[in-house]
Design brief:
mainly alpha, TerB-like, 7 helices, 177 residues
Amino acid sequence: MCWPTVSGLLISLSVYVIYECVVYYTCMITTIQVLLKRYTQAPAAVQRDSEQALRMATAALLMEVARADHDIKDEEREAVRRVIENFYSVSPEQARELADAAESQADDATSLFPFTRLITSECSMEDRIRIVSMLWEVSCADGHIDAHEEHLVRKVADLLYVPHNQFIRTKLQESGR
């Protein structure tokens, strides 16, 4: 039987230690590269997600107004698609998909607060006033403003911190069309 020499063991141990160090540092460098890539790409992804969430919140509020009278008419669905398309400058297909997803999300919603909180935190006062105007446009789409629709638009306007005079002005502008 051949016994390894001490120098042979030291060489084997040195090779093993060097191998482990190479593996360790390679893993560490790979991890750092992954983290750097993730954090350098995150702002764009976060911005896209934020924009999509804002679109969905607005569309969900529009669908809530459309169904406030317990009957969503085709004219109201079309109005939701049209205002989404115009306000967010998306294609008709994207507006339809967003409206369909928003209708489903509005069905599952238990409160308006998550939608209005996002809009309030992300939108300027002018955009919030425009959103209230879009709500009026949807409520007027079937040719009649139901009392439930008016109540909901007023509630959303309050949650968006839109001044009452702007609420009235947008109502008069949209109902006069």
